[in-house]
Amino acid sequence: MSTERVYVARLEGLAVFGPDGERIGKIRDLVAGLRVDASPPRVLGLVVELATRRRIFVPMLRVTAIDPGAVTLATGSVSLRGFQVRPNETLVIGQMLDARVRLRASGEEAVVVDAAIEPTRTRDWIVGRLAVRTRRSRLTRRGQVHVVSWTSVEGLSLTDRQGTAGLLSVLETMRPADVAAALAQLPRKRQYEVVDSLDDERLADVFEELSESDQRALLAHLSAERAADILEAMSPDDAADLLGELPDVESDRLLALMEPAESAPVRRLLRYEAFTAGGLMTPEPIVLRPDATVAEALAHVRNPDIVPALASMVFVCRPPTQTPTGRYLGCAHTQRLLREAPFALVAGVIDNELGRLGPNAPLSEITRFFAAYNLVAAPVVDDEDHLLGAVGVDDLLDHMLPPDWRDHLHDEPSPNGAHPAESAEKPETSDA
Q1: Where is the domain boundary, 242, 271, 300?
Q2: Residue 416 domain-assigned?
Q3: Helix, strand, or coil here: 118?
Q4: Is 40 a domain residue?
Q5: CB atoms within 10 A of CB 167
Q6: Can you say how many angstroms the Cα of residue 212 is from the centroid of all Cα atoms in its chain?
Q7: Domain that holds residue 239
Q8: Span 397-418, pLDDT tens digits
Q9: What pLDDT score does 138 carry?
Q10: Which site among 250, 350, 396, 423 is 20 to 30 Å from 220 CA-CA?
């Protein structure tokens, strides 16, 4: 049995030993984490049966060797808590084997007779291949067994095997960008079910990470009232980007349904061309009066709702501090604030020599500005020295990348280093 590829059917009943040779139990199954997309699932650990017949979970990272006669762990200390399968998990032997699948290339129906786990470069194990038996033909009693890659079959992903409730329990643990990528992989009907089940704040976070085409499609599914609520919960710059893609009649209707306080900054952003500093900026950077202390500034920076790029600096202005502000005085870099006494005034540490961007500055000028001064955020100031907002490097990259970059966010190399699109191969035939 090679440790580069291990067929799980051979593991059942295999003895499990600690590092000093003490017997812990025997393998009864393997646990894999189901994924929303077609990527191979990660093997999370082993289900080990103790001498008392109690079944426990042992994380895969504890495994140091898989040999033909035994599995060795890095430690003999294991949790004795009884094992239970979670909603986003599956038992490889107990639930995956004998499952009915369909071969993507030919459309043939098949049954999984074995599964191969393979190590990755990150020390994880994945279910990389499946041994499947196709339906028997008129000429043979038994169908032929083929070894195919995980991505060559359909019917085993999370969306294939679980309802919306189980899918939501998985999505709750994921970052908005990952939820958006997963959502884009779902059939439109299942997308609607998920969208209808998410609360407004969570859905707004996900909407900010969706591609423009998916945003428009899902926004059209929502009622006008809920669509307006989602736009209110989004950051103004992302809401403006989305509304800018809609017909004027629809955009005006949604703006009219939003609360005036929420729609006002969005309306200001819509005045600017999309690929200018005014079109890229957020009107909600951290703005402080000159008599604010360093401690106050750092308290604002620690706000978890502030994205990292905008938390890199605070902007000091005369009142009012809502954009468009009073006279812009300068900025204070967070790294500089960390070196100052908490009671010091931010007015004493501001950088008033750093240039500023005009609201009509084109993308090329913004890019050069960021590169020249090694910035992740930059102020946008009008001709009368009013701070209008700030451009973050995340928004800059969003507009520099191809329009469909979000659709390829999770295109990853396969375990052998090849891109998924380049790793298609002919099925292997096995006598197993």
Answers
A1: 271
A2: no
A3: strand
A4: yes
A5: 24
A6: 17
A7: 168-271
A8: 988 887 666 666 555 444 444 4
A9: 55
A10: 396
